[in-house]
Specification:
Radius of gyration: 28 Å
Helix content: 10-25%
Number of helices: 6
Oligomer: single chain
Structural class: alpha+beta
CATH topology of the largest domain: Lipovitellin-phosvitin complex, beta-sheet shell regions
Length: 437
């Protein structure tokens, strides 16, 4: 009996020694994010806090903010650059929606099912999507930007094998991805390898992190305080889980807090996609590189009776029920005016009205593009002219569709005129009108 007890004790100590040795072994915590790698991602985000209203009748007052988002997609890596950074991927979204309450006002956003398949371009610290199957709205692009790009989290990993208890600093790419800061001014962000643990029969490295990141975001100066943990499957070299709890302090120019938002982010990943939509068969025949056609944006608004497409170098500058202003990023612009068809001028009437108006403004004419008809009921004409001592090109369109009509007036700078003219004509040709609701 004594011998069997001694043998059992020896076995117990041997097992304990083996486990201790495993905990003290140096392990490589990493993921390659190689071309054609596929995986499934699921994310949950919850936020709550207060903001100081910057302007308007509520200026200076605190507004309560809360929100929740749910995200599920399959992803496949399409291109990795020479620095082993992922530059392009394709996703198929099963769910992308965000619910938010700001000062008691409910807001709901989600990705339309017809644009669930997206190509993601990595530009600096931002995800820039386009859909090979149809145009996105600006709101949908902003939705995609709220997600965390898993390959950018490579900077949370150590650059060498580590043992339990060892520490290292996260790189700026990972910190920007977790904070969405445009510029990091100061940071102290430390990761600590806790232990190797077994999850679902597989060895996983458990890493905790904590830090403060100062910088500038789209809302100005900010301080982010973050802590959390992640797990990496050591046999598959695959990030399986990430948890982040953070506090975002919005600061004024002097560094004084103007609002605080707290939130949690949970991401789980599996190596097996849940659909076939990022496989070879699903992608065959699709254009997965950006071009002028597949990167156009869709304008659609429930209170506006117009729908159209526009290039990404243009932005919606203002909207009401009757007019939409659109500006090009180098200074050109256009105004779309919506009217009943009965009060919308014909091309000839619009030409006469415009000529009389410009003459009263003492415009100097250099060249005229004669009135011409385009497919879909469009009519257009234009002038090279000097107006208010500035040489510009003026282009005009008019159209009637059913009971609705519209005129489009564009003021175009002469630099790169051919391209902006093509942009404006594309907007005009894509215009669809409907009766107001």
């Amino acid at each position: 009996m004594r011998r069997s007890h001694i043998s059992a004790l020896a076995l117990l100590f041997a097992c304990a020694g083996s486990a201790l040795a495993q905990q003290n072994e140096a392990v490589r915590i990493t993921e390659t994010f190689a071309k054609d790698a596929q995986y499934h991602v699921q994310c949950q985000v919850e936020i709550a806090g207060t903001l100081s209203a910057p302007a308007g009748p509520n200026a200076g007052k605190s507004l309560k903010v809360s929100g929740r988002s749910s995200i599920r997609y399959d992803e496949r890596i399409l291109h990795v650059n020479a620095d082993r950074r992922v530059q392009r991927s394709v996703r198929f979204y099963r769910q992308l929606e965000f619910n938010r309450n700001v000062g008691g006002e409910e807001q709901h956003s989600k990705l339309r099912p017809e644009v669930a398949q997206l190509v993601i371009l990595r530009h600096n610290q931002y995800e820039v999507p386009f859909c090979p199957n149809g145009p996105l709205t600006w709101g949908e692009i902003e939705l995609v930007r709220t997600d965390v790009f898993a390959p950018a989290l490579h900077g949370l990993f150590p650059d060498k094998a580590v043992r339990a208890g060892e520490r290292w600093h996260a790189d700026s790419v990972a910190m920007q991805e977790l904070t969405d800061l445009e510029k990091i001014e100061k940071a102290d962000f430390v990761c600590t390898f806790e232990k190797v643990t077994t999850l679902l029969g597989r060895r996983n490295a458990h890493v905790q992190f904590e830090g403060k990141v100062h910088g500038i975001g789209e809302d100005g100066k900010a301080l982010h305080e973050l802590r959390g943990s992640y797990y990496v499957d050591l046999d598959a070299n695959f990030l399986t889980y990430l948890y982040v709890k953070g506090t975002h302090h919005l600061l004024d120019k002097s560094g004084k807090a103007t609002g605080t938002i707290e939130g949690t982010f949970i991401m789980t990943r599996t190596q097996t996609p849940q659909t076939m939509e990022v496989g070879d068969a699903a992608l065959r025949g699709l254009t997965l590189e950006p071009n002028a056609e597949n990167t156009r944006l869709l304008f659609e608004h429930p209170q506006v009776s117009a729908r159209f497409l526009y290039p990404r170098n243009w932005r919606i500058a203002g909207v009401n029920e009757k007019q939409i202003g659109i500006d090009e990023n180098r200074g050109s612009g256009l105004l779309l005016t919506l009217t009943p068809a009965a009060s919308t001028p014909t091309g000839g009437q619009f030409h006469q009205e415009t000529t009389q108006f410009l003459s009263k403004q003492q415009a100097k004419f250099f060249r005229e593009d004669k009135l011409r008809a385009l497919p879909g009921g469009l009519e257009t004409f234009g002038f090279d002219a000097e107006v208010a001592k500035e040489r510009v090109h003026l282009q005009y369109y008019t159209t009637r569709q059913g009971s609705q009509g519209a005129t489009l007036t564009a003021r175009l700078l002469l630099a790169d005129l051919a391209n902006v003219q093509r942009d404006v004509e594309g907007i005009a040709r894509s215009l669809q009108l409907r009766a107001p609701k």
